[in-house]
Amino acid sequence: xxxxxxxxxxxxxxxxxxxxxxxxxxxxxxxxxxxxxxxxxxxxxxxxxxxxxxxxxxxxxxxxxxxxxxxxxxxxxxxxxxxxxxxxxxxxxxxxxxxxxxxxxxxxxxxxxxxxxxxxxxxxxxxxxxxxxxxxxxxxxxxxxxxxxxxxxxxxxxxxxxxxxxxxxxxxxxxxxxxxxxxxxxxxxxxxxxxxxxxxxxxxxxxxxxxxxxxxxxxxxxxxxxxxxxxxxxxxxxxxxxxxxxxxxxxxxxxx
Amino acid sequence: xxxxxxxxxxxxxxxxxxxxxxxxxxxxxxxxxxxxxxxxxxxxxxxxxxxxxxxxxxxxxxxxxxxxxxxxxxxxxxxxxxxxxxxxxxxxxxxxxxxxxxxxxxxxxxxxxxxxxxxxxxxxxxxxxxxxxxxxxxxxxxxxxxxxxxxxxxxxxxxxxxxxxxxxxxxxxxxxxxxxxxxxxxxxxxxxxxxxxxxxxxxxxxxxxxxxxxxxxxxxxxxxxxxxxxxxxxxxxxxxxxxxxxxxxxxxxxxxxxxxxxxxxxxxxxxxxxxxxxxxxxxxxxxxxxxxxxxxxxxxxxxxxxxxxxxxxxxxxxxxxxxxxxxxxxxxxxxxxxxxxxxxxxxxxxxxxxxxxxxxxxxxxxxxxxxxxxxxxxxxxxxxxxxxxxxxxxxxxxxxxxxxxxxxxxxxxxxxxxxxxxxxxxxxxxxxxxxxxxxxxxxxxxxxxxxxxxxxxxxxxxxxxxxxxxxxxxxxxxxxxxxxxxxxxxxxxxxxxxxxxxxxxxxxxxxxxxxxxxxxxxxxxxxxxxxxxxxxxxxxxxxxxxxxxxxxxxxxxxxxxxxxxxxxxxx
Lengths: 256, 571
What we know:
The structure holds two protein chains of two kinds.
Chain A: H1 17-48, H2 69-96, E1 104-111, E2 114-119, E3 153-156, E4 158-162, E5 167-173, E6 178-182, E7 187-191, E8 197-201, E9 207-213, E10 225-231, H3 233-243
Parallel strand pairs in A: 1-5, 4-10
Antiparallel strand pairs in A: 1-2, 2-3, 5-8, 6-7, 6-9, 9-10
Chain B: H1 8-13, H2 18-48, H3 57-60, H4 73-108, H5 117-136, H6 155-158, H7 162-189, H8 202-233, E1 245-246, E2 249-250, H9 259-293, H10 300-313, H11 329-355, H12 366-383, H13 386-389, H14 391-397, H15 401-431, E3 433-434, H16 437-463, H17 483-513, E4 515-516
Antiparallel strand pairs in B: 1-2, 3-4
């Protein structure tokens, strides 16, 4: 039982969430331990050395090179062990090593104040996008003259992911800096215009989770909420099939 | 030096005397703190009761800012950006650095004034111009900055109010730079005979290191701000990439810029700025603790060494604000290591302060209460920074309320408490009168309760995954179960406000009617207490020399139990 759940931490729903939860438990346990031992010692000092009639303070002049540095050195050693043996490998696993052959690959195109989601469709290729094609009915500016675009699925504020499969998500922004954050996945990544930032996730629990923008993006920031829907692989496949454009060949930019 | 006749205007308004300038800084920054607090109280109403009309104020605001008295998201973002700017750049930094530094540093080095009195005046008045521009921005059609105090582009370039904010920041930054030069020259070159570097009080060391940080950290952000200004007014693209579509329209920017560049330039200032806020507070705490525990400060050399280490390390930690910004994730490991490394000198500083109590004879004066509360409260602030410095846990906590809780524990529960302590401590020097003890204790306990009640719930909100800077947290379903903590936080923010009333009353009443005290009521050893209270123009009545270190408290077999630095007696 993770005590942090009592203090707000939502139940985990991704493969690397346990790593992050371990880090949270470890750091919070250390914080509480250090804080309480420190406070007890401080309270003892304040009580023990309060001003008493007739008593004089000790004239102790220490340069403190050794004794005061001891806690500092201890902190440094413990922190370096934490960094080298735990932090760097885990950070690498989550943020540096992107899956080579993901089961699902999607584009997320953030805009004020919505998450546009692009699935490549059966051909596995994302259709080209052009900024001049952006309009109310074509929010990401998909170029339907591109054959790869004809079977793409474009959704607003809704990501479907299959349970237990690795998803590679390309984060892009059309206007300002947004932030892709799903608390249950324990993942967060700024979405920067002009960049394509990869992010991977392997959901481990069925359910619908809030995808909330975590970087101030304008007046609608708090309303920029999407949903991540984790389905069984069968449900996901059925959903994908149902949402693939029916007459792929007939669609074009004009009559879409 | 004799009193010379000067007009009221020259003496109190366009003053060149460091003491008057210090008090000008103090009144301005305390006023800015109050304004910044007022901004956030309005925001806390919206956070606790989203979409409910703001009481009293709601009807006074225009329909555009607050339709039907309900705060608009634009107003929320304006108040948010201005709260941050006011508290950091107009409040805490000028109070700890400019006000305390200006008053106490020349006195503690035994100087008759700052090295460059006119530069000092220029520094204050450019600060005032900056403040006035920021306040005026509320009355412009554009309104003030709306993109957070960090002003990240492209958002800051497509919302209004950024240009005027940059203009104000240029004045404020220049003011800090002028002050920093002045402090360094005064602290190094105008020391009294015998006052070697090894005999400088920790407060002076802290101010010198702060000045050096200011001097090195502000110019990059100022240059960066000029680029941002060019983007805003001359349609350059330093921070804009190609192909932006703003609300469905192509932006038309030439492109080729990089939004993260600003974040680097900003945090290259932004992180050292934390130490600009913190180090003067540490200096104040060191003076108060040595004075009230009646024994020499523990580990003088270790403290000076830590301050100098912080000076260097504070410039290589900035990108720990950028772990998930889109910066290469391979860079993060470096900044995680430097970030944890900088915790070491901070731990040493706090350890020395705590060890200074050991063997003491602690007087629980009001300044000492504030100084003692700093130790655990700042401890919470520092310790809760660890999961943010660790890259892995930062993924989850970044940009949540946890971050807000963390840095408010650092800045308010830590630094502001120290500055309050400093005000009670040096008040007798400034006005020759003491502040009322009982009112001081009411202020102290109310503030401690208010601060903890306001900021602790933020850790829970953050752990629940709630993003910061949300105008309406309830718009996101996952925040709904935790809303009660916003209400708790807001109620305690009200208590925090009420607790400041005894302080404000006490402050102004004591200036005129406080109990008169001697020149050295705390029986302190440093040179600031060796001159009359308040010190006359030129500070010291007769030339002053220094014969010993700064904290000669309770030497063995000494009748009075303390020896001032300027006393020639052999102990």
